[in-house]
């Protein structure tokens, strides 16, 4: 049996794996967002679609990171993760909606510029939430594995 990693080492280990899972989820959600929004969907619809596309692999990878296996505690983990994830998606939806208003005013005839501004708001929201989510996932979602 491997020795338990504690303290700062534990956090660096978790953070590196959390970051890797976030890269996978972010790549998926960013591609879905760009595709759906560029094809003409409203920013809120594109955000929700992209969130769903990234949230499922993110939860699965993070569950492994924190050592959760089996069905014990799964329902509570999903519920706590969903609350954090949905809150993040709502913040991103608000940011993209406001960014679209700004982009349409600033670049009324340039769809590519509008897409870039709205996408920047989407990506920026998730970048800010990365740090907050790490601590929430560690302290609330997978708390029994600490």
UniProtKB/TrEMBL annotation:
<feature type="transmembrane region" description="Helical">
    <location>
        <begin position="78"/>
        <end position="96"/>
    </location>
</feature>
<feature type="transmembrane region" description="Helical">
    <location>
        <begin position="116"/>
        <end position="136"/>
    </location>
</feature>
<feature type="domain" description="GtrA/DPMS transmembrane">
    <location>
        <begin position="17"/>
        <end position="142"/>
    </location>
</feature>
<keyword id="KW-0472">Membrane</keyword>
<keyword id="KW-1133">Transmembrane helix</keyword>
<dbReference type="InterPro" id="IPR007267">
    <property type="entry name" value="GtrA_DPMS_TM"/>
</dbReference>
<dbReference type="Pfam" id="PF04138">
    <property type="entry name" value="GtrA_DPMS_TM"/>
</dbReference>
<feature type="transmembrane region" description="Helical">
    <location>
        <begin position="34"/>
        <end position="57"/>
    </location>
</feature>
<protein>
    <submittedName>
        <fullName>Flippase GtrA</fullName>
    </submittedName>
</protein>
<dbReference type="GO" id="GO:0016020">
    <property type="term" value="C:membrane"/>
</dbReference>
<dbReference type="GO" id="GO:0000271">
    <property type="term" value="P:polysaccharide biosynthetic process"/>
</dbReference>
<feature type="transmembrane region" description="Helical">
    <location>
        <begin position="12"/>
        <end position="28"/>
    </location>
</feature>
<keyword id="KW-0812">Transmembrane</keyword>
